[in-house]
């Protein structure tokens, strides 16, 4: 039984949702707890050809046997949360920490105002920055003060630690990516808090000595939404030649596409304390690997890419995604 953190290694949109779902189906956690910023990041999971997108509820919802928790460090938008509860019929499994700060209409209005950060750095306009600002000033509304959330309120830290003490597996899933961490990202083109594995553990109230595995998720071709430095960014023409076109889950904006960045990957793995790595988008290295579930069947071009990536990062790449669907993956963890 292990406690696993799943965190984004580049600028977000790495495919963490799929990796969380796969680990859930194989490791059978009793709890999947969400850390991160708030509803400014969307996670997409595809199962049986159906695409599921969530912004508040943990993307591990797809695994029916886990309790779904939102940690104290996460900002909660009650409107978005209730929409997802109704859509996914997940209310009976959901717990929201009573200490979560709330995104109110005024925060969204401020975020979308005339001085909106989107004009400067490309924020999503979901109210997270203003809500976190109010939290820091000690004047934020908390989940315990919102009647609509009463049935979900819990102590997430206690639930997680009790499960660990009972010898159960739990997953802590992050949002966004390392490159937009408030502390370690491309400041000022960042989100409103840290996004590293250490922060995710703190978000759900689990101490560092209780973390067994940190899975950093990378993308074969990293992407970025919004403004900010992107050293390996390719031209739109090059992206089109490779057949790569992506759009943000929350904003719908076109994602900028880049080449593999060994320097950033290595630094990200270091700060996150990676014990292993996952990689998505391998079918864009070579379309012939689409849907492959056996290492031996991978084209040499893809195998060489992974071997080099392991040298770049310094940890084994154990989860290899060969397509967007949940079953399009090679799991080398048990090798």
Automatic annotation (TrEMBL):
GO terms for molecular function: adenylosuccinate synthase activity; GTP binding; magnesium ion binding. CDD domains: AdSS (cd03108). Mg(2+) binds at residues 13, 42. It is found in: Cytoplasm. Pathway: Purine metabolism; AMP biosynthesis via de novo pathway; AMP from IMP: step 1/2. Its cofactor is Mg(2+). InterPro entries: Adenylosuccin_syn_GTP-bd, Adenylosuccinate_synth_dom1, Adenylosuccinate_synth_dom2, Adenylosuccinate_synth_dom3, Adenylosuccinate_synthetase, P-loop_NTPase. IMP binds at residues 13-16, 40-43, 124, 138, 176, 191, 253. PROSITE patterns: ADENYLOSUCCIN_SYN_1. Its EC number is 6.3.4.4. Substrate binds at residues 249-255. GTP binds at residues 12-18, 42-44, 255, 281-283, 321-323. GO terms for cellular component: cytoplasm. The active site is at 13 (proton acceptor), 43 (proton donor). Keywords: Cytoplasm, GTP-binding, Ligase, Magnesium, Metal-binding, Nucleotide-binding, Purine biosynthesis. It comes from the Archaea. SUPFAM superfamilies: P-loop containing nucleoside triphosphate hydrolases. One of its GO terms (biological process) is IMP metabolic process. Binds 1 Mg(2+) ion per subunit. It is an enzyme of class 6 (ligase). Homodimer. Plays an important role in the de novo pathway of purine nucleotide biosynthesis. Catalyzes the first committed step in the biosynthesis of AMP from IMP. Belongs to the adenylosuccinate synthetase family. PANTHER family: ADENYLOSUCCINATE SYNTHETASE. This is Adenylosuccinate synthetase. It comes from Methanocella arvoryzae (strain DSM 22066 / NBRC 105507 / MRE50).
């Amino acid at each position: 039984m292990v406690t696993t953190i799943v965190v984004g290694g580049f600028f977000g949109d790495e495919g963490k949702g799929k990796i969380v779902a796969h680990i859930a189906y194989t490791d059978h956690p009793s709890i999947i707890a969400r850390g991160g910023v708030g509803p400014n990041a969307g996670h997409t999971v595809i199962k049986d050809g159906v695409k599921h997108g969530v912004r508040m509820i943990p993307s591990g919802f797809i695994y029916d046997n886990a309790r779904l928790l939102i940690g104290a460090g996460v900002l909660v938008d009650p409107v978005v949360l209730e929409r997802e509860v109704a859509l996914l019929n997940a209310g009976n499994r959901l717990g929201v920490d009573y200490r979560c700060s709330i995104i109110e209409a005024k925060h969204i209005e401020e975020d979308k105002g005339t001085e909106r950060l989107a004009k400067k750095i490309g924020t999503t306009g979901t109210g997270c920055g203003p809500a976190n600002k109010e939290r820091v000033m000690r004047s934020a509304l908390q989940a315990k003060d919102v009647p609509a959330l009463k049935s979900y309120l819990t102590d997430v830290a206690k639930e997680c630690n009790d499960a660990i003490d009972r010898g159960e597996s739990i997953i802590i899933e992050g949002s966004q990516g390392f490159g937009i961490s408030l502390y370690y990202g491309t400041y000022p083109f960042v989100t409103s808090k840290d996004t590293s594995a250490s922060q995710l553990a703190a978000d759900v109230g689990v101490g560092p000595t209780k973390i067994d595995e940190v899975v950093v998720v990378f993308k074969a071709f990293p992407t970025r939404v919004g403004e900010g430095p992107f050293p390996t960014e390719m031209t739109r023409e090059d992206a089109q030649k490779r057949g790569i076109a992506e759009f943000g889950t929350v904003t719908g904006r076109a994602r900028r596409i880049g080449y593999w960045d060994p320097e950033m990957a290595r630094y990200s793995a270091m700060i996150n304390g990676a014990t292993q790595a996952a990689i998505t988008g391998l079918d864009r290295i070579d379309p012939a690997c689409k849907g492959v579930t056996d290492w031996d069947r991978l084209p040499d071009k893809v195998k060489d890419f992974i071997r080099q990536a392991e040298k770049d990062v310094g940890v084994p790449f154990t989860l290899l995604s060969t397509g967007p669907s949940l079953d399009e993956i090679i799991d080398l963890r048990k090798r």
